[in-house]
Structures are given as C-alpha cells and as structure tokens.
Amino acid sequence: MGGILPGKVVLISGVGPGLGAAAAEICLRDGARVVLGARTKERLDALARDLDPSGERAVVVDFDVRNPQGRQRFVDTAIERFGRVDALIQIAARQGLTGPFLETDAEDYRESYEGNLVAPLQLVRAVALAMQRNGGGSIVLIGSQSARLKAGDTIVYGASKGALVPAMRYLVPELGPSGIRVNIIEPDWTWTPRVEEILRESAAQKGITLDEARNEVVGTWPLRAMPENRDVADLAAFLASDRSRMITGQLIRVNAGHFID
Hints:
It is a single chain. By secondary structure, the protein is of the alpha/beta class. The chain has two domains: 9-189 and 228-253, 3-Layer(aba) Sandwich (Rossmann fold), CATH 3.40.50; 191-226, no CATH class. The chain has helices at residues 19-29, 41-51, 68-82, 106-133, 155-162, 164-175, 193-206, 210-218, 229-240, and strands at residues 9-13, 33-38, 58-62, 87-90, 137-142, 180-187, 251-254. Helix 2 links the parallel strand 2 (33-38) and strand 3. Helix 1 (19-29) crosses helix 9, helix 3 (68-82) runs parallel beside helix 4 and helix 7 crosses helix 8 (210-218). It starts with 8 loop residues before the first strand and ends in a 7-residue tail after the last strand. 43% of the residues are buried.
C-alpha cells in the first residue's frame, strides 16, 4: 500500500466538513487506518462511506472531547478495531466565543479553555497511555494563529489555543522517552466555505468582487494565496508519519508566509 502512513492507525478528533474531512481523506490516501471522531454521527457515517466504501479502514466514534467516557471510548475503539494507536490529529475545538475583552466574562474563558486546552490534553493523555503500549507514536495538535496575531474580537479563543504551546513544551520531555512525539500546527486564514462566506459579505458591503476581497487579505502575504484545508492536512499526515520521526516540540505555521518569527 502506497503513501507515507502504510498500516498506521490514526485517530482524528473534531472531524467536520473542513480540516477534519481533509485529514481523513489524506490519511486514508496515504495508507492509514483511521478512527474518525466528532459529535455528529450522521455526518461521520456519511464521510466514512464516501472515503472508505468497504468499511475496512475507517471507523467512526461519535463523542464530545469534553466527555471523559467519550474520550476513552474513542481510544478503546481504535484498539478494539485495529489493535493499536499510532497517531492522533487533535482538531476538536470550542469556537464561536467572540467579543472584546471588556465584554467577556469569566464563564467565556472557562468554556473556551475547557474546550481548547483541558479536554484536548485529557484526550492526549488517554492516547499517550495507549501509545506507550505499542512503543510510541505521534500527536499533532491544531492550534491557531489567532494566538499570535489579533483576528477580530477573538481574545478568548486566541488565548485558549495559545495555551497549547507551553503545554506542548512540557509534554515533549515527558513523553519523548516513550517514543511519543508532540507537535503543533498553527494555520492562518484557511479557504473554507465559512471564510468564503465572510469575504463574500465583505465584498458585497464594499461593492467589490470576491477575488478583490480575498486579495485584500492575502495581497501582502509572500505567497499571495490563502492556504486550503489540504495544505494543513498534508502537514498533519507528514507529522503523523515515520518520515518526521526526529521532529518533536515544534510549532509549524501554515500561513503562506503571512507571519514570520
């Protein structure tokens, strides 16, 4: 079987129609067996049927990453079906909590940190314990460049996603001796139906075309283009594979050069 993930068992949490679906497609293309996790079973079932009609290499688990029993069921299903866990691509996140600092309250932060830091790290813990039994693996966390650059009124989201970075720095030396690697991908604006919708609304308000509205965003970026979900998913698959076996503790941005440090 071709590709960079032959026979690997890859768990993907937070599988929606965007990055999660792209990651599932690319991991299957590259030879992996995948466990797809999200809250909406019907959507997961439809995606699995589309990507793996035989049902031999894709299994779905409907769960909420904030639920301890659901997290464990996600991991246990991988072991029961495929016998091991080789990689986790952790996409699940709590989005939608926006507003300027003076209009946000403590509950907003609690909810965002629970969904974007606490629950994902507890999933990582369950996965890492399973990985220890088969000699290691790779954990890929999806962060957000809103942790580095202001992107509207997203202080709650940006702060909670940014907290993954110091967490990773603690995980790397603890899990490394077990052969477990941990890396973070930080995407920038990514061309998705939602971003297209936002730019169409902006274009209509300004009386310009969609292409002109998009160029207002990416016109100063070095590559003059906006990343797509497949660009992020390709990197996630690489980090999940043995081709990145000496890469751990890294934060890698997929941003067309928009932000460099």
